[in-house]
Here is the input.
Amino acid sequence: MPMREETKSVLKKPVQYVKSVGEARARLFHKLNIYTIEDIITHYPREYEDRSSLKTISQLEHGETCSFRGIIASKISESRPRKGLSIYKVSIKDGSGIITAVWYNRHYIKNIFSIGESYVFYGKIVRKYGSFEVQGAIYEKVDGMADTKNACRIVPVYPSTATLTQNTIRTAIGNALELASNSIEEILPQWIRSHYNLSEISYSMKHIHFPGSEEDFKNARYRLVFEELLLLQLGLLSIKNTIDETKKGISFEAVDEMKSFINGLPFNLTGAQMRVFSEIEKDMESDKVMNRLVQGDVGSGKTIVAVLALFKAIRNGYQGALMVPTEILAEQHYTSIRPLLEKYDIRVELLTGSQTKKQKNEILEKISLGKIDLVIGTHALIEENVKFNRLGLVITDEQHRFGVRQRAILSQKGENTDVIVMTATPIPRTLALILYGDLDISIIDELPPGRKPIETYSVDNSMRERINSFIRKKVAEGRQVYIVCPLVEESETIEAKSASEMAERIAKEDFADLSVGLIHGRMKAKDKEEIMRGFVSGEINILVSTTVIEVGVNVPNATVMVVENSERFGLAQLHQLRGRVGRGEHQSYCILYNQGKSKVSKERMSVMQKTNDGFIISEKDLELRGPGEFFGTRQHGIPDLKIANLYKDMEVLRLSQEVALKILESDALLEKEENLKLKDRIIEKFSNKLNELSLN
Ligand code: ADP
Ligand code: MG
Here is the structure.
């Protein structure tokens, strides 16, 4: 259809195509990841300012943030009280009074205003030495006193960079919308729109940016959120469709020795571990292919549950494979699991990338001949030359570090193997059910007894000396310490010292007399692992790292986790980091250096101090983050969300799942005319997962 081709092409045109966007501005838009017209019109406002009621200057009050209209009454003045500080001032008047507008370091401002021009200003009103100022105001020129584009209504505020002003973005988006108005396609079938009361797409696009009223905004947003979540659900469900549920799996039999194996463990299983294992056993004994996600907070004891399942499979005469994301973790699992199984004459081997060719070949041969029962390894396990004799159960640990594909490749090395994936990324239950539509879910929601809650403190730099002597004291007691310095982007270095500089200083100055291991972001994996080994063995007292410390590493002797610039991490990430300590008998501590001053940042720290529960934290994380920032989504290969918020829009998420199921029920491949546009859009959005979609 030529019509469709053409409409597409307008949306795909580069952003320069928009009136008011030249080459220089385009480059600034690129920094916001805006390259095409489609990108710019889906650059949704972060918030809105209600300018629908304008005040007169005499009505302005100290402390309020509001809009007013006025005429430029003076030339702009510039003063430089000290180096690096320029202050710009201009007087504004209306019939009722006069006020001074003040800007700091906004050098471009001096060429904006001319005496006699009319503007609408929006900003914070402050009373100083008896007269009023409006500080850092945003402004828009108005022709005479006539009504204006933005002045008298709800005005969008966009995510931006320092160099792109709100006015520039607003104007560009207005122009882009005009340009694209005939090209924005309605992809939702009519029945959905009428049944769920969804506004049309062109109305929604316009009013999400420039709503005439709150009602407009609500309608527009509802429709856009609905569409975004519907596409997400359809995409996920299409992936699920590739799993053939009718396929017969292995029916493992009950194993007599299970009981004595469990009784022989060095600890009693928790209730949650037992429950989850019985869910797994049921799956294993049925003739369905098991696809089960085991979720459990850090330290909840997922490994042993995996071992029980492997024991069962192996006792049934099958081989098992346990895949983990790093060599360290593979070694750790190998060291802890082998002794448990060897007692039962089960042969366990390790397979990693750093083994010599000779070692590897030997192991590979044994695997293919069935002389190894359990192989624990890294990505090396999915290499082509790994052939099993009779693979029956595949487990991936720290699943979020693998793609769906890698899991599939491993399980395809056997015939209809059962699959367990384990993850420590707790996400709220309802959300898990929706996001992992293709998996059954078990949750280990209980920690082994006797764990002392980790004491968590949010501190600022004034505490540094005290913290450092606390660290020394702990090291003197024989404990070990993690210090994490988050990587920062170039542009942000003014605030946060460059992470590697900071790490270097900690290693070479603060604790020069102790054994400090340093892990840089740009270090080779092999060198990183070597340092990690030194830490695991206890040779290194303090591990300073500019990257997030390897997931899943278990060093029970480490009892202090220090996180620099913790305001830069998501809550879920902080929780993961904190989970590195508190694994042994000693009281553990988590120290969060926090430079963030905002309310949200304070609230985040208080959540960390109040609870050790990963599920509560993940709920809060969702609540406090904006759309698309949700920690799990990117890792799970789910497309970024531009407008929906998985926490606030949970109800819409549920509705959209309902609709997605309905659609696929009658049209599994989305081949009906009314669904074709939906299909196009899904393929576009999920393009990185294309070969997993059942749609093509
Ligand atoms: P994760 O769920 O984070 O992978 P692990 O499986 O590494 O947790 O277990 C963390 C620690 O808890 C290990 O040292 C393990 O031996 C221990 N552990 C596991 N289950 C129990 C239990 N029921 N009682 C006591 N300790 C346990
Ligand atoms: Mg683990």
Observations:
- Residues 113 and 447 are 64 Å apart (CA to CA).
